[in-house]
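I'll show a typical protein example:
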Amino acid sequence: MKKILAFSLSALAASAALAQAFPSKPITIVVPFAAGGPTDRVARDLAEAMQKSLNGTTIVIDNAAGAGSTIGTTKVARAKNDGYTLLVTHVGMATTPVLYRKLSYNYETDFEYLGMINDVPMTLIGRPTLEANTFAELRDWIGKNGNKVNLGNAGIGSASHLCGTLFQSELKVEMTTVPYKGTAPAIADLLGGQIDLLCDQTTNTTAQIEGKKVKPYAVTMLKRLSTPALKDIPTLDEQGLKNFQVSIWHALYAPKGTPADVLKTLNEALKSALKDPDFVRKQEGLGAIVIADKRVDPAEHKKFVQSEVARFGPVFKAAGIYAD
């Protein structure tokens, strides 16, 4: 009897060790972009806030940049589905299925959707010497110059590429697009007058607007922004491009098959982080809007991504844009 009891206790102890409460070790958030960029900053702020509701569990950031975010995204799709490897990425989750004819992952079936983090508005800005001072004047100038207008972007599949493509589609005008290897060189050439226009995230443009180094023409949300430096900039919607809305949202994902109880813990930690005053303050400082609607729920976020894919598909197809 004593031997049987001892065996039973040993078995229970082993079982308990295997079924330790999640999380019991550090969590890694993979960011499919370089350190220091907007998505990296969002991920690091989120990690700091989530740690508070995960009993101080360490969350480390792994920057796996390259190939328009597909390298890091693939890394998470193939990771062990135990909740210890997560992904923070942006609207690229919805644009890569449109841009790439072949992907090593499926955005619908290879991930567990945990919820959205924020919306980062975009701004349409021009070189400081551009003669147009209002959007009405800019629209007239574009209409007269057409493909002589140089519209910069940070590279194929970037946020500025997405915004610029949608902008041309709405205006029904084809401009000359000038891709760069990142936002910094694009803004440098805008300041120097080598390109005429750029549509990019507030995280990249607010300082330039505040310093009056560029001409701001519009923001891409349906409502004006509350950020002091941007609050007086009209929306494209109110200036004639009805319902024009582009934001670079960020969201959190886990590999497909991650246990339901682990997903529940992670989603609760995400929701708690989005209400953390320090996190909200940091995001607002970047010009970002923390998500406070139903898209923080996994199913609703997945529906939203599917709608984004359906939205971008025809625009990119009509423009003949592919990244393979």
User: Anything to note?
Assistant: Residues 122-239 form a domain with the D-Maltodextrin-Binding Protein; domain 2 fold (CATH 3.40.190.10).
